[in-house]
Amino acid sequence: MNKEAFAVIRASSGKTAAGRLLLGAGALALLIPAIAGCEAGDNAPTLEFHSASSGAHTVFNGIQITNAFVLGAPADSTLPSGGSAGLFVSLYNSNDSGDELVSVTAPGTAGSISLTGGTVALPANAAPVNLTGPQPDAVLENLSQSLRGGTSIEVTFDFEHAGKVTLPVPVEPQSFQWATFSPPASSTAGAAVSTATATPVTSATATPTTTATSTATPTATP
């Protein structure tokens, strides 16, 4: 063994734990670009659609449902039965052909769920379709029960080609990051009724005018 090799072995064996840690960190730093390089290119996972961090999400027959939630009342209060609530969701179609969200239902929670435009077109491999507010494009109508933040309800999404999928959707209070989201516009608000009372107008009665009649006095003829 030559002196140079012996010196390297001796230096390696004499390293402290801190030195070995730094050596390991350096090796890791060299590996990171190599790992990242494996994911480079047009199909890199970082370029694909990723789900949001809050709300319910699932992938069903090529349809990605993300960040689905129902907007409830402000914290420490509830939405009453008979009222309405907004549903927010993002949809992405990763299939090679287009699809369409035909309807959304919440059996046992709402009489119906209305969609702005009636249905939602989902083009193939296009940008996500965001029904994410702050004004709701999907509204739970005629709630059959009161809703409180922190609970969840069963919501069924019906797609023309992908079919039906049901998932638990959280009810989020209209507070914190959702404080700026809008509740559904009231569908029962009627036009304001004027409470002003008309004052009767008194008609002036014309006073008959007496016309003086001149009476001729006969003149005596001499």
Q: Any low-confidence stretches, pLDDT <50, length ≥5?
A: 5-23, 27-53, 187-222
Share of residues in helices:
10-25%
Count of individual helical segments:
2
Largest beta-sheet characterization: 10 strands, mixed
Q: Oligomeric state of the chains? A: single chain
Remind me, CATH topology of the largest domain? Immunoglobulin-like
- Mean of residue pLDDT values: 74
Beta-strand proportion = 25-35%
CATH-defined architecture of the largest domain: Sandwich
Query: What number of structural domains do the residues give?
Result: 2
Bulk shape? globular
CATH class of the largest domain: Mainly Beta
Secondary structure category: alpha+beta
Set out the fold topology:
Blueprint: H1 3-13, H2 17-38, E1 56-60, E2 63-71, E3 78-79, E4 85-93, E5 99-105, E6 110-115, E7 120-122, E8 129-131, E9 138-143, E10 147-148, E11 152-159, E12 163-172
Parallel strand pairs: 2-12
Antiparallel strand pairs: 1-2, 2-4, 3-10, 4-8, 4-9, 5-7, 5-11, 6-9, 11-12
